[in-house]
TrEMBL record:
It is found in: Endoplasmic reticulum membrane. Binds 1 FMN per monomer. Its cofactor is FMN; FAD. Its EC number is 1.6.2.4. InterPro entries: CysJ-like_FAD-binding, FAD-bd_FR_type, Flavdoxin-like, Flavodoxin/NO_synth, Flavoprot_Pyr_Nucl_cyt_Rdtase, Flavoprotein-like_sf, FNR_nucleotide-bd, NADPH_Cyt_P450_Rdtase_alpha. It comes from Rhopalosiphum padi. This is NADPH--cytochrome P450 reductase. It is an enzyme of class 1 (oxidoreductase). FMN binds at residues 89-94, 141-144, 176-185, 211.
Length: 681
């Protein structure tokens, strides 16, 4: 991408033109070479396809997710299935829900399969009518600013641009979203409506899961009613058969050579030893930690400034982008699971899908040890969902433990209450469950099948590539908290990062896998455009990059517009991060105004929202009279909502508009990318 090749052209004087020129000979050689290569490659492939001994070979994500045939219809027909569950997933939850639905289909005589729309020819949906009593279910997450997930993007665009006749397609949709965000379940709602517009039949009303509340409860409640609708629509009855069937079978890999065993790589074996560009979600870059310093001046909390070295990686980022960090679980928790289950964590194994037609042969790269799986691939710190409670019942030898698990796995009001209090409120993870229900001793390979994948963590980049082209900066608060059971829960990524302290000697520097995720939050194209930035706490992160970039432009002699920053924290002498930097930018004229709110430095708490209300004239001057841009970064649950309400109020009062007109004005700002939010809940 960065490299270019020069082609040297030499001129030659030809005195006599032969019957067969040098060019003719060269072309003949090329043709013969290509024909030879094609023939023997084809012969080799056909020979290898005839010999398929059953062996476990190292398998990467690319081979896990590849499918020999993109036609899901052919798979349904050839295997006698009538149910297909598609998922649009960014973090794995939608994929997990899809698997649970497909598994339960057996109870209703509907043999199911899970499908990734990215790997399927979705135009084949028109052929679903050819399968008797067929059903397509879509578990779809909405991501970012109302965007489809990466693996659902092509399907979404196909629905938008196509006009297929989907008459005869029976479907249902469950959406995964978060009410704290503006575009709540927008993609799922669109897909549900668009399928109906194209002639498909909705078997059950759309379900909307809210991750800010209890998405597991939302899903279970919707799923129960879904099957009622399915029975009514098709005139079938539940068989009553339990669906606790293993999706993967254990394969002993003790004879596999050590160099063929995965040790935490995301996709390609030995990818961290032999790094290859380009770097992305399946091929992260192993970055050195160049800087790791504390930003808080005092107090019992910690905020880290960390710099990832990307020199030589060919990775490029833009101001406002995010960096993904791949964490690993603490050895303490991993060892605890081995101790509780009396398991040999260094045993080498593989999990092989029992469904031979599935394109997903393994849940993650294999073969591996239990220690590797629990450290790098499995989420052992989040709250397990109800289906895990159900699967654990058979492993409980104490009747009391059995009854407790049965209750929490049930959909009764009492069961939901117990699950909410014992799992969610008390914040228990799988380790805590095994500790508090000591008779529960699941097979470790089954536990590896049940637990969700450990996901990468995203951080707003707090630097500008104009100033720091060879490094990426982040600003991260260390997550540690005590639960109601007096256990200390620790953030997986931030506690790992806190341990990665670079040394000043010749010892190898600490490293961690990362990749860059593009963001929609961008500075205005023109440096003269005025901007307002609202970022309390670590919400300052992307704006540090914005300020650096405008400062760089100013030093180059370019005109820059007004830059107004609203920043807040608890105490000036405790957690005012980047204080000296910000004051320097004010002094040199890059930062026009710095509004500060220290919530606990006076009897009455003071937040950035209070300052915004006080500076209505300044706000309207920039976003109304000068058509400037406004940015918000931080907590989506309260701060971002409060800011939005204040902006609407300011537009009403200063722009002399009605409430409806003001809402439309702010909506237009968002559409024009003049109002951007980088928020989290």
């Amino acid at each position: 991408m960065e490299n270019s090749e020069g082609v040297k052209i030499e001129s030659t004087v030809v005195t006599e033109e032969p019957l067969i020129s040098a060019l003719d000979i060269a072309l003949f050689v090329v043709i013969i070479t290509v024909a030879y290569f094609w023939y023997f490659k084809r012969d080799k492939q056909s020979s290898s396809s005839e010999k398929k001994p059953y062996t476990i070979q190292p398998s990467s994500l690319s081979s896990i997710e590849q499918t020999s045939n993109s036609s899901f219809i052919k798979k349904l027909k050839s295997t006698g299935r009538s149910l297909v569950v598609f998922y649009g997933s960014q973090t794995g939850t939608a994929e997990e829900f899809a698997g649970r639905i497909a598994k339960e289909g057996a109870r209703y005589k509907m043999k199911g399969m899970v499908a990734d729309p990215e790997e399927c020819d979705m135009a084949d949906l028109v052929e679903m009518r050819e399968i008797q009593k067929s059903l397509a279910i879509f578990c779809i997450a909405t991501y970012g600013e109302g965007d489809p997930t990466d693996n659902a993007m092509d399907f979404y665009e196909w629905l938008q641009n196509g006009d297929a006749d989907l008459e005869g397609l029976n479907y249902a949709v469950f959406g995964l979203g978060n009410k704290t965000y503006e575009h709540y379940n927008e993609i799922a709602i669109y897909i549900d409506q668009r399928l109906e517009e194209l002639g498909a039949t909705r078997v059950h009303e759309i379900g909307l899961g809210d991750d800010d509340a209890n998405i597991e409860d939302d899903f279970v409640s919707w799923k129960e009613k879904l099957w009622e609708s399915v029975c009514s629509h098709y005139g079938i009855e539940e068989t009553g058969e339990e669906s606790n069937i293993r999706q993967y079978k254990l394969v002993d890999c003790s004879e596999v050579l050590p160099e063929r065993i995965f040790s935490g790589e995301i996709s390609r074996l030995k990818s961290y030893e032999n790094q290859r560009f380009p770097f992305d979600v399946k091929n992260p870059y192993l970055s050195k930690i160049a800087v790791n310093r504390e930003l808080h001046k005092s107090g019992d909390r910690s905020c880290m400034h960390i710099e990832f070295d990307i020199d030589g990686s060919k990775m490029r980022y833009d101001t406002g982008d995010h960096v993904a960090v791949y964490p690993k679980n603490s050895s303490e928790l991993v060892d605890k699971i081995g101790e509780l289950l009396n398991a040999d964590l260094d045993a080498v194994f593989s999990l092989l899908n029992t469904d031979e037609e599935s394109s997903k042969k393994h849940p993650f790269p294999c073969p591996y040890t239990y220690r590797t799986a629990l450290t790098y691939y499995l989420d052992i710190t989040s709250n397990p969902r109800t289906h895990i409670m159900k699967e654990l019942i058979e492993y409980a030898s104490d009747p009391k433990d059995q009854e407790k698990l049965k209750l929490m796995a049930s959909s009764t009001p009492e069961g939901k209450k117990e699950f909410h209090e014992w799992i969610l409120r008390d914040n228990r993870n799988i380790v805590h469950i095994l500790e508090d229900l000591p008779s529960v001793k699941p097979d470790l390979d089954h536990l590896c099948e049940l637990l969700p994948r450990l996901q990468c963590r995203y951080y707003s980049i707090s630097s500008s590539p104009k100033v720091y082209p060879k490094s990426i900066h982040i600003t991260a608060v260390l997550v540690n908290y005590t639960t109601s059971t007096n256990r200390v829960n620790k953030g997986v990524a931030t506690n790992l990062l806190a341990q990665l302290i670079p040394t000043n000697d010749e010892l190898p520097q600490p490293t961690i896998p990362i990749y860059i995720r593009r963001s929609q939050v961008r500075l205005p194209p023109k440096s003269q455009t005025p901007i307002i930035m609202i970022g309390p706490g670590t919400g300052l992160a992307p704006f540090r990059g914005f300020i650096q970039e405008r400062d760089y432009a100013r030093k180059e002699g370019r005109e820059i517009g007004e830059m107004v920053l609203y920043f807040g924290c608890r105490k000036k002498d405790e957690d005012f991060i980047y204080e000296n930097e910000l004051h320097e930018y004010v002094a040199n004229g890059t930062l026009t105004k710095l509004h500060l709110a220290f919530s606990r430095d006076q009897p009455e708490k003071k937040y950035v929202t209070h300052l915004l209300e006080q500076n209505a004239d300044e706000l309207w001057n920039i976003i109304g009279e000068k058509s400037g841009h406004l940015y918000v970064c931080g907590d989506a649950r309260s701060m971002a909502k409060d800011v939005h309400s204040i902006i609407v109020k300011v537009v009403m009062e200063k722009g002399q508009m009605t409430n409806s007109q003001a809402l439309n004005y702010v909506k237009k700002m968002e559409q024009q990318k003049r109002y951007s939010a980088d928020v989290w809940s």
